[in-house]
């Protein structure tokens, strides 16, 4: 498929298609005709040749739920290192977990002729699924396993299972769980199920595990949820939290209640926030390799760009993790 | 100055200038001729009209020293919120403190027709000064006060002075300092001078203050520098650190040496890392308003874009700070 094929199908000149692709001036009628053909055929220009011709550097779009967070910072740093090595620029969109903004960025970035898009996944919705399916450029999703899309994600379920297993090994028997919204499959569903798997394997009833869902991954929410669980289950002897930040809040509530973390109650988080290694006792947690997640996602995207849209099998990659066993267990 | 003025001066057609500005196909000869005129006149196209014509969303370039760090995350989140409200996309470059990459991004972003650039400032070099002067689009610098450039920065010197003053108020007399490279004026020079100002005002000789320069703002470096200072000045009773992360490392070294932070030795950092509020004792520090720094920088840039290059006075804005007095003092 070449520019002149597109031109013939749209009934316009090759120069018009070229202007369309480069964002040059064009009548609305011609723009619409070309747009329809490009949509229908899934045509993507050879971006390397385009760079040579125009002097522009190609861009990759990155859509993130919250660029202020530590894990997102690590993932984007990983993406940036790979893109930089291949002389791509990063067009960054920050959604603040707003689904409309996420869809808006997907559209705007395609309009701005990005070569491809990396989406730091959060919630999966039918609208997002449709938008990803309609995307005219290759997409790689990180942090979530979305159907039929290239993904780089962490094995949240197995990691949470092993973390809870370690807590059980320390003799904890009445383990409770502070989780996150189940609209987020990786952090909400997979981590909860992993903890329940461990309880079931130990002959405890995982379905009956007392649990609560925090509204945001903040210390304040961790503290509030822990206070509530302490009222509901005063004899609890272990707490697994969906993230380290939530666990720091839980730690505060446990201290206020006169409980001694690492002694009469075990505590664990997920994410290996660097602060957890400095606490006394240190916070047991799961280390994911977030920078490598970003690097891997960028490498897969760049490979898809080199293959230039030939529809090979969809790559879905899961990266390992490490249990950080510290004094809080 | 219009496209047809540029066309006349370059001896080409208006359509050629338009193609140049939109990155369309063009002979190298014409491109060079137009480029020379655009450089000479400092011409910038009306980007809003351009968006209407091409369907593309305008982009603002953001160049950051290290997108994995907490403060950079906050600044970029602030920038993103303002750009998003005005429907600009953010083109992000991560330099990892590499001066060549910083210059490379400045060039590449202009080639990609960003409307303006926000540079999260680190080191000031003659090359950077020249590149900023030659920049064809408006630039705003954050975190540093660079001459003749719009800036949004923190009052590092006054903040460090007040922080050290608080430590003196706690009766500390033999204060030492762990600083950063003086190639970075804000964190390297200004913070050190602020601490020395406080000592001088208290009748202690600030010039004689024992100090050491860490090679990176990491816990490991903070720990190493603290160990060295403990050997050089075993009777020290107060430590001010250039950042919180460095202070966390210093805290570790002090503990290992059997010193009790907040009791026989005072400790303070700068930056209000959220981990500092969770420690026991809490880490005294300076809170800067980094998200607001980003927002303010974006607002100034957008205002410059609206004024469309009319050379008004250069805005340099300093934002306030807050001393967070906690148990470690």
- Largest protein interface, residues of each chain: A-B, 53 and 52 residues
- Helix % of chain A is 40-55%
Largest sheet of chain A: 6 strands, parallel
Distance between the termini of chain A: 59 Å
- Shape descriptor of chain A: elongated
Rg of chain A, please?
A: 24 Å
| Beta-strand content of chain A | 15-25%
- Widest sheet of chain A: strand order? 2-1-3-4-5-11
Uncertain spans of chain A = none
The CATH topology of one domain in chain A is what? Rossmann fold
Assembly status: homodimer
Return the CATH class of one domain in chain A.
Alpha Beta
**How many strands in all of chain A?**
12
Mean pLDDT across all amino acids of chain A: 91
Number of helices of chain A: 12
CATH architecture of one domain in chain A: 3-Layer(aba) Sandwich
The CATH fourth-level homologous superfamily of one domain in chain A: Response regulator
Order of helices and strands of chain A: HHHHEHEHEHEEHEHEHEHEEHEE
Protein name (chains A, B): LacI family DNA-binding transcriptional regulator
Keywords (chains A, B): DNA-binding, Transcription, Transcription regulation
GO molecular function (chains A, B): DNA-binding transcription factor activity; transcription cis-regulatory region binding
Pfam families (chains A, B): LacI (PF00356), Peripla_BP_3 (PF13377)
Structural overview:
Chain A is of the alpha/beta class. Chain A has 12 helices and 12 strands. In chain A, helix 1 packs across helix 3, helix 6 runs parallel beside helix 7 and helix 10 packs across helix 11. The longest helix of chain A has 17 residues. Chain A is elongated, with a radius of gyration of 24 Å. The N and C termini of chain A lie far apart (59 Å). The relative contact order of chain A is 0.12. Chains A and B meet through helix 2, helix 5, strand 2, helix 6 and helix 11 of A and helix 2, helix 5, strand 2, helix 6 and helix 11 of B. Strand 2 of chain A pairs antiparallel with strand 2 of chain B.
């Amino acid at each position: 498929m070449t520019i002149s094929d597109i031109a013939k199908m749209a009934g316009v000149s090759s120069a018009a298609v070229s202007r369309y692709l480069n964002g040059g001036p064009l009548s609305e009628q011609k723009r619409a005709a070309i747009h329809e053909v490009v949509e229908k055929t899934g045509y993507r220009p050879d971006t390397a040749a385009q760079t040579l011709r125009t002097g522009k550097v190609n861009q990759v779009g990155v859509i993130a739920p919250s660029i202020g967070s530590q894990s997102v910072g690590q993932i984007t740093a990983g993406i940036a290192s790979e893109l930089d090595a291949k002389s791509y620029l990063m067009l960054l969109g920050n959604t603040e977990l707003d689904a409309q903004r996420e869809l808006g960025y997907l559209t705007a970035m395609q309009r701005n002729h990005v070569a491809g898009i990396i989406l730091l996944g959060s919630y999966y919705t039918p609208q997002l699924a449709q938008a990803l399916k309609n995307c005219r450029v290759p997409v790689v999703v990180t942090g979530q396993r979305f159907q039929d899309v290239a993904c780089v994600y962490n094995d949240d379920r197995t990691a949470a299972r092993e973390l809870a297993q370690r807590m059980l090994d320390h003799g904890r028997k009445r383990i409770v769980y502070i989780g996150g919204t189940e609209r987020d499959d990786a952090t909400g569903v997979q981590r909860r199920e992993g903890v329940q798997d461990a309880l079931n394997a130990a002959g405890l009833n995982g379905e009956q595990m007392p649990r609560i869902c925090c509204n945001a991954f903040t210390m304040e929410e961790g503290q509030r949820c822990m206070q509530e669980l302490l009222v509901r289950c005063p004899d609890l002897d272990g707490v697994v939290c969906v993230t380290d930040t939530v666990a720091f809040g839980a730690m505060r509530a446990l201290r206020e209640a006169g409980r001694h973390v690492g002694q009469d109650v075990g505590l664990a988080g997920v994410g290996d926030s660097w602060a957890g290694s400095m606490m006394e006792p240190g916070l047991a947690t799961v280390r994911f390799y977030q920078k490598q997640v970003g690097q891997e996602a960028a490498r897969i995207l760049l490979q898809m760009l080199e293959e230039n849209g030939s529809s090979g099998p969809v790559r879905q990659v899961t990266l390992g993790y490490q249990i950080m066993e510290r004094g809080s267990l």
